[in-house]
Specification:
Radius of gyration: 17 Å
Structural class: mainly alpha
Helix content: 55-70%
Strand order of the largest sheet: 1-2
Low-confidence stretches: none
Number of strands: 2
Mean pLDDT: 97
Number of helices: 11
Order of helices and strands: HEEHHHHHHHHHH
Amino acid sequence: MPLNQSQVDTLKLAASNYAFPAAYFDFSKSEPVDGLTMRLVEEGIRNDLLSDDLLKVKDGLSNVLYWGFSQMGGLGPVRTEIFRTQVTEKNLLAASRLFSESPRPDLKAIARIGLPQLSMVSFVSKVRMFLDPDKSAVLDKQIMKIHEKRATTVLAAVKINGTTIPVTSNNSRAYEAWCDRLEIINQAYELQLRVVDIERAFFHLVQSGRTQIAADILANA
């Protein structure tokens, strides 16, 4: 059953109401940057990830963690510091080569680099999203709450191991299917949004206590 107009409008409104903190850290000044929009955060991180300067690649990956943990108290700075302490030049060189050679690297390719703190689908998919927000999304435990409401969506292919979503061949394919489904929704309902914005609409619905609505939309779209 296709979406009705009310469901389409709900998805559009959720995308516009997405309000995850636009957290970004300036490592050269050792201070957070306030007043940014999410688009500016995306641009800053993507530019760093694609830089020829390995220190900037390090900053970009650090900001993926800093942003991703921004709603979890002081965990962002802690995880970011662990990453910056443990990451090696070999890691950064491998990351730089992959990002420059592959506009949309698959999750397994990113995970093979062995980046500290960036090993599970939740954060590996964030790296991919910042590299290519037009066609890529995030897949994490918040999004998987949709599966708990409707077990027949594209998310059924994702296999969770305890409390984490490991990067496996299966989950890498499931992630691509998730991104593809979001693009299909975008085209079918002429939303004129990026894949990441549609994912954020579902994320916003979950975070605002409307997971069942999100599940019904995804199941019918």
